[in-house]
Amino acid sequence: MLTELRLLQNINLSGLNTIDVYERVGGYRAMRKALTEMDQDAVLQELEASGLRGRGGAGFAMGKKAGFIPKGGMDKFLCCNADESEPGTFKDRLLMQKNPHLLIEGMIIAAKAAGANKSFIYIRGEYDLQATILEQAVKEAYARGYLGRDILGSGCDCDLVVHRGAGAYICGEESALLDSLEGKRGNPRLKPPFPANQGLYQGPTLINNVETLCNVPSIIWNGADWFKQVGTEKSTGTKLVSVSGNVRRPGNYEVELGMIARDIVYGLAGGPPDGRKVKCWFPGGSSAPVLLDEDLDLPYDFESMARAGSMLGSAAIIVIDDSVPIVDVAMSVAEFYRHESCGKCTPCREGTNWTVKMLERIDDGDATPMDIEIMAQVQSNIIGNCLCVLGDSMAMPIGSMIEKFRPEFERHMEEARRRNGIDLNGLEPAALASDDHSGPMPTILEAEATAGRVTD
Q1: SS3 letters for 234-296?
Q2: Could you give phi then psi for residue 300, rounded to 5 degrees?
Q3: 380: pLDDT strictly greater than 80
Q4: Phi/psi of residue 53, nearest 5 degrees
Q5: Each residue of 33-61: pLDDT tens digit?
Q6: Could you tell me the strand order of the sheet in which 205-209 lies?
Q7: d(CA 358, CA 368)
Q8: How many helices (H) and strands (E) does the chain have?
Q9: pTM score
């Protein structure tokens, strides 16, 4: 159990969003240290030694990522991905609203590490309040001389702009974010080239999540060894976890990476309502493959979630209890990603649409056992075949639901047929009819047993 909060230490302090209060609790001292006492390599080495991994979903080492930025006199860019659009995720919103200067300080230090002189915060369009707070904080930082040219006489330049998006989920993908920043339609780019070499305005670009950058000041001030005192060997530090769904105390919690997941869901979030059990849970937002109740006994860290067949992702735990039909969960996920697909890739554009249509067939009672097989095959054809991971973000959870809850999908089909007055012992519906069929229609399970059988 975490004994001392780090990111949320002063989160409820009145006026923390102002520069005066933020400095009163130690704000901007890490920036002074990084700019006046450390060179670029020293800052990079400290970040890499900390083991800080990206908190936006991919979990890539932040120090190593910053080290990919080439050195030289060209304009280099730092982009903060604040397009927090993953369903179930609301941790970055809390940090930007309550402690905006922590993010700004982290960006100044990260810009020093990457050699960047121009920085952007790309915030989702729906976060109007948070964007307004950030814009005011940026003005305060400029007025105090912490942004602009030759900051604190260190020779470091850093300009910062808050850019509002237009509410597109796809712009959370880093290359689509860059296109949107440039005034284009937010579509993912073909890689390579990667943003570190050719990103915003074709210049070297470092892209990091809000929570990732908010960890930077404490690492520089306290040192990498301090940061690694909590967490696991490969998942160091603390993590903000957004817990929602069928729990009694939804909200944001700061936990030590490696904490048992059951202690988060039942201990911190209170577990499901009385009389209910956990049917499944998303460990990393709606794009993570679902896990079962027994998986709550695993450590909550990057490696353990991957070994369980899912991912920590953005650390948004969505709990589904046994009162919710799995088909309803799958439909909500599939409809969201169909709506948010940019349509650029055929597997994503067509696959998300076909998945929704097949789930509608199941819910309407028009489906056959073969529809489940086709739906599973569609997910396999999507994964790894798109320009970005939006298609995978639907295919992975839907595929895991089919794998873990296939009998419930079958029962849902049978119940839907009964609701629509279809006699399971009568003649086959037109969708199953064949020219030479004259016997009674097989039940769902019988049809499943013979599906795909080849006869002479």
Answers
A1: CCECEEEEEEEECCCCCEEEEEECCCEHHHHHHHHCCCCCCCCCEEEEECCCCCCCCECHHHH
A2: -90, 90
A3: yes
A4: -105, 150
A5: 999 999 999 999 999 999 999 998 888 99
A6: 159-164, 118-123, 77-82, 205-209
A7: 10
A8: 19, 8
A9: 0.90
